[in-house]
Fold each of these.
Amino acid sequence: QVTLKESGPGILQPSQTLSLTCTFSGFSLSTYGMGVGWIRQPSGKGLEWLANIWWDDDKYYNPSLKNRLTISKDTSNNQAFLKITNVDTADTATYYCARTFYYGYNYWGQGVMVTVSS
Amino acid sequence: EIVLTQSPTTMAASPGEKVTLNCLASSSVSYMNWYQQKSGASPKLWIYGTSNLASGVPNRFSGSGSGTSYSLTISSMEAEDVATYYCLQLSSYPWTFGGGTKLELK
């Protein structure tokens, strides 16, 4: 049974760094073809793809976030991470992690709400 | 970046009505995925590889398309189909989602 769960700070101030953790079970990020991605969704709005990390440590980022993103993984502990530097109110959203295995995201976490406010 | 434009943005359908949701890509893509998101829930994979139904998806749903034009069709609308549907292209980075179509019951 594949599960993913996101965790984060809940609220943070502008200019701080947002650190998110995705803890998963039921698969391994060392399996050939496996990947984990991060997607966010501001309240009442659409989905925005942020980044992917693959079994071979290949990483891809959304260029619209201008080098603010860093994705990483800890295969031994079944976790993936996303950092977003220099946050502002536009980064307020629900953040999802999701597993991708050949066919795109087929398992999603429940999402974690992040609010950026002074 | 490939931009996906979904139409209509919102629509209402009566029970039993045939529904078609569209996703237009700014450049050709190899295939399209569709996701269903109900209010307050995470998105669910609904259709992958343009026309393959994800596990548990009723067979009144179908997907089709090629190149820059893709669609999701419901042969006979049911109340449980009320949701927002998003298309996602994985052909090239950055992966991109369409803006979504909100489907309501008439």
Amino acid sequence: AQTVTQSQPEMSVQEAETVTLSCTYDTSENNYYLFWYKQPPSRQMILVIRQEAYKQQNATENRFSVNFQKAAKSFSLKISDSQLGDTAMYFCAFVALHRGNQFYFGTGTSLTVIP
Amino acid sequence: ETGVTQSPTHLIKTRGQQVTLRCSSQSGHNTVSWYQQALGQGPQFIFQYYREEENGRGNFPPRFSGLQFPNYSSELNVNALELDDSALYLCASSLGGLQGAVSGNTIYFGEGSWLTVV
């Protein structure tokens, strides 16, 4: 079984500053994918960033980057130059290889960007 | 706009009743999964359908069942509703099949159906 843990229920950051959201996971799978999703009040899940476990290089998408530590089973999200539109719930998620859309999500971190 | 439409958006049911939720995705999306998201929680995987067959199921009782149709639209049925079934129900679809995450195909989420059981 897979588990995903997000230990920070709520976080806040000043606009234009940097914030890091933590995520750890547990799995016996060797090949898998990790994701960060953003869920604004509209409840629409929006993909922020995706990491293939077999890649050692950390994924980056504009202001968003991850620190993937496979041995430690850690997958943190760094948001640089935080913007008001980044205010949302953030979910870390895991999908094993060949499992399609079978996601396992963490409990989420509520991020508030303060003007 | 993701092209994934869920209906109804909100509904209220009485304990013991049955409910059907629907998910209509983009043409060709052959893989659909359903999630239950209780208030303040992360989504929990219910089950997944690939080419009209169930392929993967989470820790949910048999009263949660589903269908995927030839046009790849999908239904989630819940019988004998309980108060704890009150939640947001999300569907996610993609055209990558079980290789979805591998091939990098985009996975699209709907905006969900809010179910309240009273």
